[in-house]
Write a structure and sequence with these properties.
Layout lengths: L6 E3 L1 H4 L5 H4 L4 E7 L4 H19 L2 E7 L4 H4 L5 E4 L1 H11 L2 E7 L6 E2 L1 E6 L14 E3 L6 H13 L4 H4 L2 E3 L6 H10 L5 E5 H9 L8 E6 L3 E2 L2 E4 L5 H13 L5 E4 L2 E4 H5 L3 E3 L7 H9 L9
Parallel strand pairs: 2-3, 2-4, 8-9, 8-10
Antiparallel strand pairs: 1-3, 4-13, 5-13, 5-16, 6-12, 7-10, 7-11, 14-15
Helix pairs in contact: 6-12
């Protein structure tokens, strides 16, 4: 997959709040944001948050949008990371990234679930009935769009390689939405969708949840999160975490001449403190499904 990454220096949005010494060339800290739906959507969501953190902490940040499959290769060039929970587990093991906070969004707050869905009119009522059928998955390194569903299938005696007639991963951007639409329109018999995306599309009126049947859902696991690399001193990491946990729905920042609400633009409800051991369920799931960082072949 072609690597996508663009750097944005947030100097214009932070100069007005920086001290003279900071304007004169203090170190810029780099935050890598995993591309969620598209590169542009990711930057639009998180540039205001990054500007808010720069103002709050009095430091300069650079922002980089990084494709999921390229993130671990870029980790050594970053100071802070924003990724899904599987990527955090990989980077914690391989690069020593430590957890700071998890995002809150949707009905489960700082947790997330993966669903296996099918059209209600299909008559499919359980996972075993997927044998010989078609299925569509989200990104392969997505914990609630691929790994969780693979785990559910394997637990129910279904090996996608041998038991499905075929399976696919949509190309391009907004893969989670393409999965749900693909099932709704009958292109696939079943699909692997994150609960959060399913909830959002239902809330927006883009889908009718009553037209789907949920064949299985995974255990709750941590949602997307911020981490810190070994290059950042503990004092700054602590302040960064405190700033995240302290953001409220009322907090705003000026970006590109517009005053925006930080959480609203980031499309999250807030941030919650989590511990590394909260990710043990993901580690167990990765081991059962032969996923990084525990793949055996």
């Amino acid at each position: 997959m072609k690597r996508i990454g663009i750097f944005f220096l947030l100097i214009l949005s932070t100069l007005s709040c920086q001290k003279p010494a900071q304007q004169a060339g203090e170190r810029a800290y780099r935050i890598g944001y995993m591309i969620c739906n598209s590169e542009q959507e990711t930057l639009d969501r998180f540039r205001p948050l990054t500007a808010y953190l720069a103002k709050k902490l009095g430091v300069r940040f650079e922002i980089q949008a990084i494709d999921t499959v390229d993130f671990t290769r870029e980790a050594d060039n970053l100071d802070f990371t924003h990724t899904n929970s599987l990527l955090y587990v990989i980077m914690h093991r391989n690069q020593g990234v430590d957890i700071l906070a998890a995002e809150q969004a949707g009905s489960l707050g700082a947790r997330a679930k993966g669903l296996i869905i099918a059209p209600k009119k299909s008559g499919i009522g359980n996972l075993r009935q997927l044998k010989g059928r078609t299925m569509v998955f989200g990104p392969m390194l997505g914990p609630t769009s691929y790994m969780a569903q693979l785990d559910l299938l394997l637990k129910n005696g279904i090996d996608p390689e041998n038991d499905l007639s075929s399976y696919a991963i949509p190309p391009g951007t907004f893969k989670h939405e393409k999965v749900i639409y693909g099932v709704m329109l009958g292109k696939y018999d079943a699909g692997a969708a994150p609960l959060l995306d399913f909830e959002r599309m239902a809330a927006d009126g883009r889908i009718d949840p009553n037209e789907f049947v949920v064949l299985a859902e995974s255990e709750p696991i941590p949602y997307c999160n911020f981490g810190v690399t070994q290059k950042v001193d503990e004092a700054l990491a602590k302040r960064f975490k405190e700033a995240l946990l302290g953001i409220t729905r009322k907090d705003t920042v000026e970006i590109d001449g517009e005053v925006v609400k930080v959480l609203e633009r980031a499309n999250v409800d807030g941030y919650e403190a989590v511990r590394d051991r909260d990710f043990d369920g993901i580690r167990d799931m990765a081991k059962r499904t032969n996923m990084p960082p525990y793949q055996r072949y």
